[in-house]
Amino acid sequence: MSEIEMDNGQGQQSNRWDGYIDWRNRSAIKGRHGGMLAASFILVVEVLENLAYLANASNLVLYLSRFMHFSPSSSANIVTNFMGTAFLLALLGGFLSDAYFTTYRIYIISAMTEFLGLVILTVQAQIPSLKPPVCPLVDRNVKCEKVDRGKAIMLFTGLYLVALGVGGIKGSLPPHGAEQFDEKTLHGRKQRSTFFNYYVFSLSCGALTAVTFVVWIEDNKGWQWGFGISTATILISIPIFLLGSATYRIKIPTGSPITTIFKVLAASIYHWWISSNSSNVVSNFSTSSSYTTRAREDGEYSERKAEIETLTEDLKFLNRALMTTARQPWLKSTIKQVEEVKCVLKILPIFLSTIMLNCCLAQLSTFSIQQAATMNTKVGSFKIPPASLPVFPVLFIIILAPVYNHVIIPFSQKATNTETGITHLQRIGIGLVLSVVAMAVAALVEMKRKRVAIQSGLMDSTEPLPITFFWVAMQYVLLGSADLFSLAGMMDFFFTEAPDTIKSLATALSWASLAMGYYLSSVLVALVNRITGSFRHTPWLYARNINHDHLERFYWLMCILSGLNLLHYLFWAQRYRYRSSGNENQIVNNRQMQK
């Protein structure tokens, strides 16, 4: 009888997902929790969440300049700082999900926070006394009273509560979806890659509604209606997310990964310092590093090939953390910990190489909209709001994402005889190339737009220029295509290559790259204005009238910087070696990208 009970116990144990629980903190069961059904709830929620966020972010620069009376450059910087902060806070959401809470709980808390921020913005947009006095824009050179004091506090409180909520959602929702698949199997890894592709598809579906219907409402019915729609949308997304609770498998937090990273780094530096003053270190190191990693560490076992069994030769400096010392026993590290820190450090150059791409994407929310606002936006008898320009790349992504997943990927898998076909790093590289081309096109289009303004004598007029906004749409399509290739590639790459203890945090690097890109855009604008202002009476990007700016020069600068960044990326991508199972065969393809 005892043997039968033991067999039943082993069977029940093998039927559970190790390291995962359900929403009631019980063991997650195979066949009941996880899979594409669970991930489908997350994809629907992302449509609603991105609609709520992008409906305001895409048009915010015009709201700040027309109703809060900030200058074009100040409005652009406020928007980029707001969006940058939102995406940077994804790191906080990812860290808390990995270390202390779960992706499930972080999403719910973050959605409620974003809801509160949108309520504040809706109330301010609705009540005239909470905004600065209306300023008729008959003349672009008339200076209006800018929002200040309590009204400004209310504005920025609402904006940054939204940013905090968006950051938490971006840091928890993608890894929550990716965790629904078993990465130990080929089928599970393929489903996870499909999830990331359709996650970008869901982002685009939400964006399509945001930049068409909601933006039209904001421009024609009032911003209080736009904020109200966003508020209702994020509120609806919460019960939809909860409907999938019974199907989710939720990863158990493992404690702060930052502690391990700093311990390994501190131990490496400490032993390096000791080695310069001692001759006995070599014998200590050889003794301590000769052991092998236990098959079961802390009672857990993983069949992934990424589990560390031997010490690698990469980043040899970190191997010093394995040296034994009686003085500092808390610095003692295992081979597994050292190799995990190496994995984190090796993906950082790839992360840094994507920041410039997102700096280019930041222009779509700022200067590109201001360009379109001066042009003819009519299509027949219908007038398209300038903030609806992102509809072009969004539609392109909605069409291309399924084609990429069901046509391009299977074809490339057969052609290359590899698991992924097109590697993660190749996808990111394609995005970087497209960003260089997009900035060159943007500069040429701006030169043409200003030439038309001069020839038409409309440099200081509020009348639309006799040039269609479809010229600006070209840079939207190019950068939208770059975003499709790079964002899905980055999320899949960071999630796959990161150690198990920091997958949410690593996935959040995709959003942190966006944040750094937006911040870099603000820094470049300020730096360009300061430098050009010191050599000229008027900086390149400081006029209230964009016709008097030198935006084309700024775009050429962005093109040059993007080209240099592409070379920097190729240097690191050529040398990167994949660590996870199913990706080792990507090394050859990754090097072929350089030829």
TrEMBL record:
Transmembrane is among the record's keywords: yes
Q: Which InterPro entries match?
A: MFS_trans_sf (IPR036259), POT_fam (IPR000109)
Compartment(s) where it occurs, according to its Swiss-Prot or TrEMBL record: Membrane
Q: How does it sit in the membrane?
A: Multi-pass membrane protein
Keyword annotations of the record: Coiled coil, Membrane, Transmembrane, Transmembrane helix
Q: Which GO terms describe its cellular component?
A: membrane
Mind telling me which SUPFAM superfamilies this protein's record contains?
A: MFS general substrate transporter
Report a single Gene Ontology molecular function.
transmembrane transporter activity
Q: What top-level branch of life does the organism fall under?
A: Eukaryota
Q: Which PANTHER family match?
A: OLIGOPEPTIDE TRANSPORTER-RELATED (PTHR11654)
The similarity comment for this entry is:
Belongs to the major facilitator superfamily. Phosphate:H(+) symporter (TC 2.A.1.9) family. Belongs to the major facilitator superfamily. Proton-dependent oligopeptide transporter (POT/PTR) (TC 2.A.17) family.
Q: What is this protein called?
A: NRT1 PTR FAMILY -like
> What organism is the protein native to?
Olea europaea subsp. europaea
